[in-house]
Amino acid sequence: xxxxxxxxxxxxxxxxxxxxxxxxxxxxxxxxxxxxxxxxxxxxxxxxxxxxxxxxxxxxxxxxxxxxxxxxxxxxxxxxxxxxxxxxxxxxxxxxxxxxxxxxxxxxxxxxxxxxxxxxxxxxxxxxxxxxxxxxxxxxxxxxxxxxxxxxxxxxxxxxxxxxxxxxxxxxxxxxxxxxxxxxxxxxxxxxxx
Length: 194
Ligand SMILES: Cc1cc2nc3c(=O)[nH]c(=O)nc-3n(C[C@H](O)[C@H](O)[C@H](O)COP(=O)(O)O)c2cc1C
Hints:
Layout: H1 5-20, E1 28-34, E2 40-46, E3 49-51, E4 54-60, H2 64-71, E5 74-81, E6 86-96, H3 99-108, H4 111-119, H5 129-142, E7 154-168, E8 176-183, E9 186-192
Antiparallel strand pairs: 1-2, 1-5, 3-4, 4-7, 5-6, 6-7, 7-8, 8-9
The chain binds flavin mononucleotide.
Flavin mononucleotide binds next to strand 2, strand 4 and helix 2.
């Protein structure tokens, strides 16, 4: 569900406060996915863009998380901005971004990261580190003097939220929790006990 003005404002204000507080990686978020048997797993990814339509990260679509999302689109994103004592929990469904959007973002990445996206068979077993470095060297040769195209298995997912909770740390553990839940008619807003 498209974010309403209050959610947009709260997210953007929290993010800006984290930046102002000097937080080193405010875009880092814990992405949780669920496999086809219902087993959950989590890892950190970086938020690369967001707007009222959702929150975008990029990855290898054949990775463990990519396979999970292909089988079960349910995903959660968790931000903990320690410096400004805020937590944001976003739950919803992840859908691939368009090829054009992924191409544009890939083209903006440093060349080394572009090579890395080709070189890494993310989440597969790696015999030894040298094998990866050899793959990188081969790819650098292959693309020398040329633009590096986006690998077909490297793209983005946009999480379209239906539940968002903002948590604000307050004195004496009397934290403030504001929960937004979406249904067909829009967002409802509730407070939760801490
Ligand atoms: C700070 C940080 C940022 C990361 N950003 C990304 C990212 O944007 N995309 C990504 O695929 N992996 C990123 N990773 C690596 C993932 O946490 C994870 O190890 C990798 O994606 C493989 O996960 P999977 O086997 O569950 O698919 C990041 C790790 C850290 C610690």
